[in-house]
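Contributing new records

If you add data, match the layout below exactly. Sequence lines come first and carry their own label; structure lines follow with theirs. Keep one chain per record. Anything else will be rejected by the validation script.
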Amino acid sequence: MKRKVYFAGSIRGGRADASLYAEMIARIKESCTVLTEHVGDLSLSALEGELQRDAAIYSQDTAWIRECDLLIAECTCPSLGVGYELAFAEKLRKPCFVFYHREKCSLSAMIKGDPYFKVFPYSGREELFAALDGVLNGR
């Protein structure tokens, strides 16, 4: 049975990395089921989520976190929601893998300093996808 992955990336915090999210999701889908494919949807705007009911988004996202086998987050673009999702997943003892572009951001100390999270700084796509493949292949 394929593992279920909750992919976390910024939506309301900004969509600058949406195309990267789409690439990561495509790679993850080669071996796993991604519960949150919409995060990589290039047509999804930061404001689009505001048209939906926040309570429904919360209920769906927390249900997916409960259902997932692991959480993969791309955290270069800061997002309160992604931080919350990571903390929620940690509370449920879900394995959490955090990726961020080291030259584009300074990752929050609350994430980087938490020994529960497996953090992968990267400099380019090649390094990112090598680390992602390692996570997906259990290395």
